[in-house]
Every structure is written in structure tokens, then in C-alpha cells.
């Protein structure tokens, strides 16, 4: 993990982008409070997929617990066509 202040981050933007390929780079304010994180595109995409998967899992669990009758395949497809 790497950490830089906001002014340092501006001055070393390309170096931070390179460093973020292997580890997160934390951008902090002058009082050492973390304000942002630079991560690689690969890490970001994996994190987004993981969050989307978790949301899908929660939605599926809610659907199983609901008292609504299940949709047929035809009903489901008609919702996408409309």
C-alpha cells in the first residue's frame, strides 16, 4: 500500500498510476485523512463485478422469500420486449 498527499498526487500522477497496477495508492489530505484511492482498472472491474454479484444474490434471496408466483420464461421475455 502506498500513500501520498493531494499535492504530491498531482505532482506524481503518472508514477501513482503505475504504482496502482500492483497496489492501491491512498491520497490523503494534509492531516493524513484518506480522501481517495487509486487502483488499477483490473481491480476496479473485479470490485464492481463482485458488488454486482452480491446485489444479484440479495435480489435472488428476496425473490425466493417473496410470496409472489414465479414468472414463466415467456412472461419474463415479454417484459424485455416492451
Keywords:
single chain, 82 residues, alpha+beta, YefM-like fold, 2 domains, three-stranded mixed beta sheet, 4 helices, 3 strands, 57% helix, elongated, Prevent-host-death family protein
Could you characterize the architecture of this molecule?
Residues 1-23, 60-82 are annotated as: Disordered. Residues 10-23 have a biased composition (Polar residues). This is Prevent-host-death family protein. The protein is of the alpha+beta class. The protein folds into two domains: 2-39, YefM-like fold; 42-81, no CATH class. Helix content is 57%, strand content 16%. The protein has four helices and three strands. The chain has helices spanning 6-11, 13-19, 41-65, 73-81; strands spanning 2-5, 25-28, 34-38. Strands 1-2-3 form a three-stranded mixed β-sheet. A hairpin with a 5-residue loop joins strand 2 and strand 3 (34-38). The longest helix has 25 residues, at 41-65. The radius of gyration is 21 Å and the shape is elongated. 2% of the residues are buried. The model has no long low-confidence stretch (mean pLDDT 88).
